[in-house]
Amino acid sequence: MRKVRIAQIGLGHDHAPGAYRALRSLSGDFELLGIAEPDKAYRDRITWPEYGGAQLQPVEALLAMRPDAVAIETAEEQAAPIAQRCADLGIAVYLDKPGAMTCAEFDRVADTLERKALPLQLGYMYRYNPAIRRALAAVQRGELGEIYAVEAHMDIFHDTAKRQWESKFPGGMMYFLGCHLIDLIYQIQGEPDEVIPLNRSTGIDGVTADDFGLVLLRYPHGVSFAKTCSAEVDGYARRQLVICGTRGTIEIRPTEIWAADNPVHYGAPLTARWKETFVSPEEQPWYDGGARGETALFDRYEPMLRDFARMVRGETVNPYSYDYERRLFRLVLRCCGAEK
Q: DSSP characters for 47-82?
């Protein structure tokens, strides 16, 4: 099996340590050429233990090695220009979410890669979560009947400086974390009839950023929503996805549980808990029935990047098309109140 020669560009994205750890662990799939950070504001992060003593290299030096692929983990506002440069050079791109600041720059990256038949993979971290994949498969098989609502939460407790930092994004938290939820709703229900963004600032500790994100998505037979907040105490434990259909409901909560002995946020392993309940004449409407389960241990990034390696080698086709990613990104910005 041919190893994919890959470089990581960026330390600025919150998921950069997880991607780097996964690339190192997947030594059978990747030859990791090195890591670079174009912005000096983030270069001191190379001392974090997640990077294991790695040494930074100049971006130019890594690109001069002509890698097969790059994993772009820069700060969000720098991601699309770097991705475009790599696409122009004929390099496959793994681009962490949501990938750009405007539709124009995202479309240009996707268009270039599509024209050159090069893989584009977006780093939406729930796409390889086994509980979510299980639920999406049930939806696709029609087991829940007609879906009339999806309820998605992704919350966290950030300090004041981090919450104010979110002001650089359109829609604040809806852009930063809500994009993960919009991806799931879009996979399940497709294009909404109407998007109603209700993103706000809590004003806590003087923060002016939209640190509370809420968007309603109206569909022909119901309303779905995504809610994300970075001022919620113990919010991580209440991250959840609920899919409601005419024949059943699936609830995943929490969407991720870090192992108790996990010393760092970006390490593995994880589990997720799910509950599924289907229409049954034996159960009363108020009965807390259904089946419950918990996934085996899993990692956010390893299966995603393993699949990326297979795409680069031509062994598989990305299930998320260029067109899907373009339409999703446009919907993300609509949910942020930044696009019509």
A: GSGGGTT--B--HHHHHHT--SEEEE-S-HHHHHHH
